[in-house]
Specification:
heterodimer, A: alpha/beta, Rossmann fold, 2 domains, 7-stranded mixed beta sheet, 5-stranded mixed beta sheet, 35% helix, B: alpha+beta, OB fold (Dihydrolipoamide Acetyltransferase, E2P), Dihydrolipoamide Transferase, Chloramphenicol Acetyltransferase, 3 domains, 6-stranded mixed beta sheet, 4-stranded antiparallel beta sheet, 8 helices, 18 strands, 26% helix
C-alpha cells in the first residue's frame, strides 16, 4: 500500500478516473502549464504530460468563465473536474454554481444532469482576508449541491472518485494545511496527514461519516483541519479522564445524521469545531439538528468552537488567535462538565 | 439570576430599622439606582436605591415593620424568572405571578430550592424520571450548578434501589396446608358454581326477645344456635336447598347437617352440627359450643368437619350488615347472617325502633332457581320474625 499526501492522493484519483472514463477532464487556472505548480497546490502536477492539454485545460483568470464552461460541459455529457486556486474565488462563480449547476436537474424535472466536480482549497494559511476563508457553509445552504470535505488522503481519493461518478454537482473542499508539509508549495504550519492509500480501486461513499476516535464523555465534531484539532484536544482531555469521541462527517451534504445523533445519544455532550465564522455556520446547523432530534439525550449545552465573526486576519499572531486551536476545544469541552 | 434586596448596614450603632414605604410594587419594573424603598432609623429617614434592574419580586417586608439590617426583603429578578417560595420567610411571598411566569407549573417552582432556579439537563431529567427520582433529591454539579446525568447516577449509587409499593414485601407466606386447602376449595366454588346472592332484611326483635327470655331462664343459646334451629325447620320444607350435585344428579338429602363457619386463630373451620331439624335448641347449643371450642383449640376430629348439607356463616359480631358468602361445596347454598341492629322502622304511621338483621343467601343456580331460593329465604325471614311459628 502506498503512503501519500492528500495532494498526491487526489492526483492519483484524478488520474484513475481520467484513465477509466474518457469523458473526465480537468479545467482550471495554471493547472497544466509547462513549468507550473500543477494548480496552486500541485494537485494536477504532471497530469498534462500524461493526458495532454485537451484534457488538462488551462483557462484565463476567470472563475465565472471556467465554471460556466464546466457546467455546460457537464450538461453536455462530459464529466469535468474544475478547480479554483483559492476557495474564496468561488464567490466569482457563485451564479454558475448556485443558480445553474445546483438547479438544472430540479428545473428540468431530472432530465438534465450536471455531473460537475468543483475542487476548492480553503483555510487560513497566512494569506489574509481574501485567500483564507472557509466557505463550506455557503454551499451547504444551496439545495442541489453536494459538499464533501476530506481530511485524510484515503478519503480524499475515495471521495473524489465518488464525486466524479456522481450525476450531481459536487463541491470538494480541501484544506491548504492538509495537502502535505513537503514539496514546493507546502504551507507553513502544514500537517502531514500522509496516509495509506490502497493501489486497488476503492470508493468512499458520499454521505458517510466516520468516528476518528471513540469515547463516551463528549462528542467533538470537526471537519477538514479541525478534525485534527479535535483529535489533539481529545488527547489532552484524556489526560484529565475525559474520553472524547471525535467524528469526521467527511461529507457535509448529505450529512451522516445517524452517526452524529448516535454519538450524542451515547455521550450526551456535543462540541462542534470549525474554522468558518460563527454566525450562520455549519456548526449552528449541527447544533440545531441535535436540539431537534436528540434534545432529551443532552446532558449539557451544545458548544460551537469557530472563528470569530471577522475576516481572517493577515498577521500570523492574529491568525493563530482566529483559528480554533486544540486548547480552545479543550476549554469548550471542560466547560460542559 | 436574582439579585437580593437587602436592608443596608447603617454604621455600627444601627441594628434594626423600620421600613417606611416601598416606592415600587411587587411585579413592577425597577431600574438600578432609582429609589426602591425608604427606611427610618432612630436618627433619620432615608431612601435605598435598587441594587439592580429588573422586576421587583418576593417582597417579604411590609411598611411599618421593624427589620434587622442585612435582611433580605425582596428580590429583583429578570422578567420571566420565577423564584421558589421560601419556607420560614417572614411573610409568605404573594400568590400573584408576573405575566411571563404565569404559565410556570406550581409544582415545578416548588421543587426549586430557595433563592433561585435549579437547572437540570434533559438527559438527567430523563434518567431521573426513568428511576422515579424526585428532582429535589438531586444535587447539581454540572455547568452553572445544573443537575446532570452524573448527579443522577451518583444518587442511584448512593441510594439503594427504591422498590415501588407493589415490590415492598412485609412477609411471604407459603400457600400450603390448611390455607392451600381453603384456597383450592374457595377457588373451585367460585369458578364452578353459578352462585347468586339474595339479601333480605328481617325484623329480629322477637328473636332477640326470645333469646333474652331463654337466657333469663338458664338456657345458654347464641344467635348461631337459634339460626341453626331455624334452618333445620326451614330446610325441612325446602329440600331443594338441602342438596348437592353428585355426578350428574342433583341429590336431595334426607338429613339436615349444617356446617357452622368458625373463625379461629389458625384459619376458617366449619364444624358440622348434625340433624339440626331433629334436635332441640338446648342440644344444638350444647353440641355447637363443644364443636366451636374444639375448633378453637385445634382439637376437632376430622369427621366433625365434613358431611354438611348446608352452611351457616355469621359476621354479625364484626358489625357486618350483609355480604356475599361463598358456597361451601358440595352444598347448594349458604346463609350469611349480619349484625342485629336497632333501626327505625315504619309501623303504620309511626316509626318504631326494631332489631333488624340482614340475611344473605348464596345459592347455586345450577341446582335451584331464584324462585325456590327466594321462597326459602322468605321462610327463614318469617321464622326469624315470628319465632313462635317454630312451634307450629
Amino acid at each position: 500500500m502506498a503512503k501519500m499526501t492528500i495532494a498526491e492522493a487526489i492526483r492519483q484519483g484524478i488520474r484513475e478516473e481520467m484513465q477509466r472514463d474518457p469523458r473526465v477532464f480537468c479545467i482550471g487556472e495554471d493547472i497544466g502549464i509547462p513549468g507550473g505548480f500543477g494548480g496552486a497546490f500541485t494537485v494536477t502536477l504532471g497530469l498534462s504530460d500524461e493526458f495532454g492539454h485537451e484534457r488538462i485545460l488551462d483557462t484565463p483568470i476567470s472563475e465565472l468563465g471556467l465554471t460556466g464552461i464546466a457546467v455546460g460541459a457537464a450538461i453536455g455529457g462530459l464529466r469535468p473536474i474544475a478547480d479554483v486556486q483559492y476557495g474564496d474565488f468561488l464567490f466569482l462563480a457563485m451564479d454558475q454554481l448556485a443558480n445553474e449547476a445546483a438547479k438544472m436537474t430540479y428545473m428540468s424535472a431530472g432530465t438534465v444532469k450536471v455531473p460537475l466536480v468543483m475542487r476548492a482549497p480553503v483555510g487560513a494559511t497566512g494569506r489574509g482576508a481574501q485567500h483564507a476563508q472557509s466557505l463550506e457553509a455557503f454551499f451547504t445552504h444551496v439545495p442541489g449541491l453536494k459538499v464533501v470535505a476530506p481530511a485524510t488522503a484515503y478519503d480524499a481519493k475515495g471521495l473524489l472518485k465518488s464525486a466524479v461518478r456522481d450525476d450531481n454537482p459536487v463541491l470538494i473542499f480541501e484544506h491548504k494545511l492538509l495537502y502535505g508539509s513537503k514539496g514546493p508549495r507546502s504551507e507553513r504550519g502544514a500537517l502531514s496527514p500522509i496516509g495509506e492509500v490502497p493501489e486497488e480501486e476503492y470508493l468512499v461513499p458520499i454521505g458517510k461519516g466516520v468516528i476518528r476516535r471513540e469515547g463516551q464523555d463528549v462528542t467533538i465534531v470537526g471537519k477538514l483541519l479541525t478534525v485534527y484539532r479535535a483529535l489533539a484536544a481529545a488527547e489532552e482531555l484524556a489526560k484529565e479522564g475525559i474520553e472524547a469521541e471525535v467524528i469526521d462527517p467527511r461529507t457535509l451534504v448529505p450529512l451522516d445524521k445517524e452517526l452524529l445523533l448516535e454519538s450524542v445519544k451515547k455521550t450526551g455532550r456535543l462540541v462542534i469545531v470549525e474554522e468558518d465564522n460563527l454566525t450562520g455556520g455549519w456548526a449552528g446547523e449541527l447544533a440545531a439538528i441535535v436540539a431537534e432530534e436528540a434534545f432529551f439525550w443532552l446532558d449539557a449545552p451544545v458548544k460551537r468552537v469557530s472563528a470569530p465573526d471577522t475576516p481572517p486576519p493577515f498577521a500570523p499572531v492574529m491568525e493563530q488567535f482566529y483559528v480554533p486551536s486544540a486548547a480552545r476545544v479543550v476549554a469548550a469541552v471542560k466547560a460542559l462538565f | 439570576m436574582a439579585t437580593e434586596v437587602l436592608v443596608p448596614p447603617l454604621g455600627q450603632t444601627v441594628d434594626t430599622v423600620t421600613l417606611v414605604q416601598w416606592y415600587k410594587a411587587e411585579g413592577e419594573q425597577v431600574n438600578q439606582g432609582e429609589p426602591l424603598f425608604a427606611i427610618e432609623t432612630d436618627k433619620a429617614t432615608l431612601d435605598v436605591e435598587a441594587p439592580a434592574s429588573g422586576v421587583l419580586w418576593g417582597v417579604s417586608c411590609a411598611p411599618g415593620t421593624e427589620v434587622a439590617v442585612l435582611t433580605r426583603i425582596a428580590f429583583i429578578v429578570a422578567p420571566g424568572e420565577v423564584l421558589a417560595k421560601e419556607p420560614g420567610a417572614t411573610s409568605p411571598l404573594p400568590e400573584k405571578t408576573i405575566a411571563q411566569v404565569a404559565s410556570e407549573p406550581q409544582a415545578e417552582a416548588a421543587r426549586r430550592p430557595p433563592g433561585g432556579q435549579v437547572f437540570i439537563s434533559p438527559r438527567a431529567r430523563r434518567l431521573a424520571a426513568e428511576h422515579d427520582i424526585p428532582l429535589d433529591a438531586l444535587q447539581g454539579t454540572g455547568p452553572e450548578g445544573a443537575i446532570v446525568e452524573q448527579d443522577v447516577r451518583a444518587y442511584l449509587e448512593r441510594e439503594p434501589a427504591r422498590p415501588t409499593a407493589a415490590e415492598e414485601v412485609l412477609e411471604r407466606l407459603p400457600l400450603s396446608g390448611v390455607r392451600a386447602i381453603i384456597a383450592e376449595r374457595m377457588a373451585r366454588s367460585a369458578s364452578t358454581t353459578a352462585s347468586v346472592t339474595l339479601t333480605a332484611e328481617a325484623d329480629a326483635t322477637a328473636l332477640v326477645e326470645l333469646r333474652e327470655q331463654l337466657l333469663e331462664d338458664g338456657v345458654q343459646v347464641s344467635y348461631n344456635d337459634l339460626f341453626l334451629y331455624i334452618l333445620g325447620r326451614a330446610l325441612r320444607g325446602h329440600p331443594g336447598l338441602n342438596a348437592s350435585l353428585v355426578g350428574d344428579a342433583i341429590t336431595l338429602w334426607k338429613r339436615i347437617h349444617v356446617g357452622v363457619a368458625v373463625d379461629t386463630d389458625r384459619s376458617l373451620v366449619v364444624p358440622v352440627v348434625r340433624d339440626v331439624d331433629r334436635k332441640g335448641l338446648a342440644q344444638i347449643a350444647q353440641e355447637t359450643r363443644a364443636l366451636i371450642e374444639a375448633a378453637q383449640e385445634g382439637k376437632i376430629a376430622p369427621d366433625d368437619l365434613k358431611g354438611q348439607t348446608f352452611t351457616l356463616t355469621n359476621l354479625g359480631m364484626y358489625g357486618i350488615d350483609a355480604f356475599t358468602p361463598i358456597i361451601n361445596l358440595p352444598d347448594c347454598a349458604i346463609l350469611g347472617v349480619g349484625r342485629i341492629k336497632t333501626q327505625p322502622v315504619w309501623a303504620g304511621d309511626h316509626v318504631k325502633p326494631r332489631q333488624m338483621v340482614w340475611l344473605s343467601l348464596t345459592f347455586d343456580h345450577r341446582l335451584v332457581d331464584g324462585g325456590p331460593a327466594a321462597r326459602f329465604l322468605q321462610r327463614v325471614v318469617q321464622l326469624v320474625e315470628k319465632p313462635h311459628l317454630l312451634m307450629a
